[in-house]
Design a protein that fits this description.
This protein is α/β, with parallel strands linked by helices. Helix content is about 40%, strand content about 15%. It comes from Cellulomonas marina.
């Protein structure tokens, strides 16, 4: 019988959380040299050059723990913020920075992984742990609630004061974090404090995965999904609605562990997601699938109407577009597995 993700209830101890603060597997071989700036968008080459310089500064400045690579008399900022649309290579550049500085002296994680680390270790212990790194990288920096705004602002302030270099990616300018999601004016001071800490590097361009706004993921028949996943010991097969219900019972920080040992994910009954809280959990799962290069095969209505027009116009629209782009790429990999190897030349 094919395994199901809904039968998994992973537990993630604190030591694993720390061990996994490294660049995702999808980008393990990437570096500044493998990033190919689009000549049509000068901001891509400019960001690449700036990050190369930043990597040299961080390496030359020593570790955290009070030895700062930045002095107030210098014009260089203590942090850099990569802003741009989905698929323009922000995560590629962020992981390249981590590799250039050294993964052994860098903490790398998504926003939700850092907030969960604070929950597991406590704030003071998290600061002490991260302050021993030269660089802290935060991918997908998108604030979803006021509490996270205050928490991350305080964490970054503590780390910067201890000389830790900071780098982040997001689809939203730092002064616009929270826009359209909660009453941002009530937390304007915290948001402005965050924005003031970053040098913003705007990266323009088109989605390198598909070069179009919404990715249409390939669909297959339910019986094909069942057959393909049954043929692989590392595959899972779930009903889409059942999986969405299960995700509500698992903390998003554990979605990576949910995929331990999984090499292919099959989903049947794929249909539009009607509630935003459910849609946001799905976005996190897609990100973890993408980080781990796990192909998916989809049966149902695919991704054409996965998120409503209202969702795609709202405050989380860039998250949804990123998820569509990434899910389409993974579904393309899954469709290639369904098709099997081509004829031998």
């Amino acid at each position: 019988m094919t395994a199901r993700l809904v039968d998994r209830r992973p537990a993630v101890p604190p030591d694993r959380l720390l061990a996994e603060m490294v660049p995702p597997r999808h980008f393990v071989g990437e570096s500044f040299d493998t990033y190919r700036p689009d000549p049509a968008y000068a901001s891509q080459a400019a960001a690449l050059d700036r990050l190369r310089t930043l990597a040299d500064q961080v390496r030359a400045g020593g570790s955290g723990g009070g030895r700062s690579w930045f002095r107030r008399s210098q014009p260089e900022p203590v942090a850099v913020y990569l802003d741009g649309g989905f698929g323009v290579g922000k995560t590629h550049l962020l992981t390249s920075l981590a590799h250039a500085v050294g993964v052994d002296v860098t903490a790398y994680g998504t926003f939700v992984e850092y907030t969960n680390l604070v929950g597991a270790l406590g704030f003071a212990a998290t600061v002490e742990t991260l302050a021993r790194r030269r660089l802290v990288c935060i991918d997908e920096f998108e604030l979803d609630d006021p509490g996270d705004t205050v928490l991350m602002s305080r964490l970054l302030r503590e780390l910067a004061d201890r000389g830790v270099a900071l780098a982040a990616t997001s689809n939203t300018l730092p002064e616009s974090l929270g826009e359209g999601r909660f009453a941002a004016e009530d937390f304007l001071r915290e948001i402005q404090a965050l924005a003031a800490r970053f040098e913003v590097l705007r990266i323009d361009g088109q989605d390198y995965r598909q070069r179009r706004t919404v990715t249409q993921a390939p669909e297959v028949a339910p019986e094909v999904v069942a057959r393909v996943t049954a043929a692989r010991a590392d595959a899972t097969c779930d009903d889409f609605a059942d999986l969405l219900a299960h995700l509500a019972q698992v903390h998003p920080s554990r979605y990576g562990a949910l995929l331990d040992g999984v090499g292919l994910v099959g989903l049947t009954g794929v249909a539009p997601v009607e509630r935003q809280d459910v849609a946001l959990r799905l976005v996190v799962l897609v990100d973890r699938l993408y980080d781990r290069d796990v192909p998916v095969v989809l049966a149902g209505r695919g991704t054409s109407e996965l998120f409503s027009a209202e969702m795609l116009r709202g405050g989380y629209r860039k998250k949804y577009y990123r998820a569509l782009s990434r899910l389409g790429a993974l579904a393309g990999d899954g469709a290639a597995l369904v098709a099997g190897p081509g004829p031998t030349p």
